[in-house]
Design goal:
This protein has three helices and nine strands, in the order E-H-E-H-E-E-E-H-E-E-E-E. By secondary structure, it is α/β, with parallel strands linked by helices. The strands form two sheets. Strands 4-3-2-5-6-7 form a six-stranded mixed β-sheet, with helices on both faces. Helix 2 links the parallel strand 2 and strand 3. The protein starts with a strand and ends in a 5-residue tail after the last strand. Inosinic acid binds next to strand 5, helix 3 and strand 8. The site of magnesium ion has 3 residues, from loops.
């Protein structure tokens, strides 16, 4: 096997249940708009949402920053904008992974000017200590090292998103 399991399906389920309970508590009495960042976040979006006990609506954005390489280009393109207006609403961005932070930094800037009531981030994975811009992340599933990971929505060159766990790519595959 060329992909070494790093985080199991059970660990993901458990962590998302805790995150969902925390979100439910933090937004008690409010309605929430979950904004998934395509494509990587589709799986966490579906699983996390089912652990949140609040009136929730969904929207998605698609951005591109990587192409087929494992290094960030630092250039973010919005491929699909939100369908919803977010002024006055509680918005929670749902991400698969934060690496350099450049993607989210750009997204936050472009969403803040639309005046949401609140704007926070939930991410399954955070690569610890390598952000190139400071990012305030309210909900983090797992802190991981700088290695390139795939599975549970995360891809390498479009593949491996369907793995039910998060694994590290062996160097022979990169
Ligand atoms: P950032 O802008 O460098 O924070 O990168 C954010 C995006 O890059 C994520 O939403 C992922 O789509 C992708 N990415 C970053 N690190 C990884 C990884 O280890 N595996 C797969 N995709 C990654
Ligand atoms: Mg992504």
């Amino acid at each position: 096997m060329d992909i070494k399991p790093l985080i199991t399906t059970e660990e993901i389920d458990e962590t998302l249940a805790e995150m969902g309970a925390k979100i439910t508590e933090d937004y008690q009495g409010e309605e929430l708009l979950l904004v998934g960042v395509l494509r990587g976040a589709f799986m966490i979006m579906a699983d996390l949402a089912r652990t949140i006990d609040l009136p929730v609506e969904f929207d998605f954005m698609a951005v591109s920053s990587y192409g087929a390489s494992t290094q960030t280009s630092g250039v973010v393109r919005i491929l699909k904008d939100l369908d919803e207006e977010i002024e006055g609403r509680h918005v929670l961005i749902v991400e698969d992974i934060i690496d350099s932070g450049l993607t989210l930094n750009y997204l936050l800037k472009s969403l803040k000017v639309r005046k949401p009531a609140s704007l926070e981030i939930a991410t399954l994975l955070l690569k610890e200590g390598i952000q190139r811009v400071p990012i305030d992340v309210k909900y983090v599933g797992f802190n991981i090292g700088p290695e390139f990971v795939v599975g549970y929505g995360l891809d390498y060159a479009g593949k491996y998103r369907n793995l039910p766990y998060v694994g590290v790519m062996g160097p022979e595959l990169l």
